[in-house]
Structure formats: structure tokens, C-alpha cells
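Hey, does this match?
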Amino acid sequence: MYLSVVSTIYRSENSIGALAESIVTACDKLNITYEIILVDDGSLDNSWYKIEELTESIPNLKGVKLSKNFGQHYAISCGIEQAKGEWIVVMDGDLQDNPKEIERFLEKTREGFKIVTANRIGRKDTFLKRVYSVVFWKSLSYLTGKPLHHSISNFGIYHKNVIESVISMRDNIRFFPTMVNWVGFKKTSIDVEHNPRYEGKSTYTLDKMVKLAIDVILVNSEKPIMVVIKTGILISFISFLVGAIYLYKYLNHQISVPGYTSIIISIWFLGGLIIFILGVLGLYISKTFDAVKKRPYYIIEKITSKI
């Protein structure tokens, strides 16, 4: 068996050594052939230099440096495209994902599963981060129409057929969990302990999570447009009823003075609704514009390896 372990790195110069050491320790116990792929997602610290140093002491480690910060899921796309293994492990580089779980992942694959993901229990994130995460995943699950849970992460093991299918998807916006969910295959999850971060804090701010959610929803779902259409139909129906009522009153001479308040409220409400609808349509058009450019998902600046 040939195993590939892919991990994305961003501003983690102090934890890369511990990460690589823990992966090596976990994989050496399995007595298999393996490679480690660390993708530096445009870090501004000394992360890349640490990776270069590690390739000198760990012969089966490959470092890939992206030309700028493209984002975690684009870095994952880069890493899995570099992977040569029959099975590919994807994990974060902050050591909240424990490499010792790889053995349990492999044991589960012997039951015929092509995808085994980690169900994180006892999450060690801050309270606000946990709240953001729950809201993010519930919103994403509803609007994409796909069952997604906040405890499921990128951390897991995937058969090469799964990874090849994900790579073949040419979606301009890359979001690994929904892409894996879409390709199918027999999958399951196992409970794993969620470790504290080795250092620092998450770079996923509320603004970044909102932007990510909007991008993923627009790529994976037509539901926002359907919500807008249904809202428009509902308002049109209500407007028709209100118009019919006022026409009846007018014909029966029950209206003597036109209502200023109702006119102002109607103008502001319908004006806001029209702007909202145009905004939703504009977002879909902008994502279509980005897609037709056919720009690469990432750009590799440098690769270091002795493999």
C-alpha cells in the first residue's frame, strides 16, 4: 500500500516540525510506504524555509509553495493533485487533527469504505468559533440541499478513485467537503478527539466564513434564486389582493383621501426587495464571469523534494 498524507500550511512556522514528526511517527508504525505533502499557502512567515529544512531530514517529504495565499481549499486541491498514493489522507496543519488517527482510518477502509472522515468530538475551538461553525454548516446544508454537519471536517482518508473524481471537477470555487459529498462512493465517519491548536489562532474570521459560505452556496445551489422567485410570487399575490380590495372600496366611494403612509411603505419595501433580487442575480452573474475566465485554481511557485 502507498499512502499520501496532504496537509496545508499557513503561517505555521513553529508547528511544522512537530506536525511532520507526528505524521512520520504515525505512519512508521503502519509499516507501509508513504509520502508527506506539505502545501504552503502563501505564508508570510518562515513556514517555507522550515519545510525546505524538513525535506533534508525527511526523504519522503515534499514541499509545495504557492505563489500567494489562494485559500485552504485551493491548497488542498494542489496537494491532492500532487499525491501519488492509493489512499490519501487530508489534514489541517495546526495539529488539531491528530495523525495517530490515520491507523483507525485505514482499519475502517477494510470494511469497504472509500471515504472515512473524522467526526470531531470535544472541539477545542473558542466559543465564538464554534457558534460561527454551527451557523455556517447549518446554513450551507439548508441552502445547498446536502446533509452537512459542523463536526465533519476535511480530516479523513480518501481512496484514489475519490480524489481523481474530485480533481476532475472543474468548479471555479473549490470547497473540499461539498466536492467529496457530491462525487458519492461508500463513506462513513469515526469519532476522533479534537486537539487544541499548537499555536496561534484560526485565520477563519467571521467575514471569511460568510464570504466562503456565499461562494459555496452560489456554486452548489439554485435555492437562493428559488427563494427570490417564491418571494416575488408571494408579494405579487398579496399586491393583487390589496389592489382588488382598494379598487372595490374606490368603486363604492369608501376612499376619500389617499393614504400617504401606505404609499411610502410600499415604495421602500418594494424598492429594497428589487435591489435584493438584483443583488442575488448579480452574484450569480459575477461567479459565472469568474468561471469563464478559466484561470488556474492556484499557481505553484516552487517545489522541494527528494522523493
User: Anything to note?
Assistant: The CA atoms of residues 143 and 223 lie 6 Å apart.
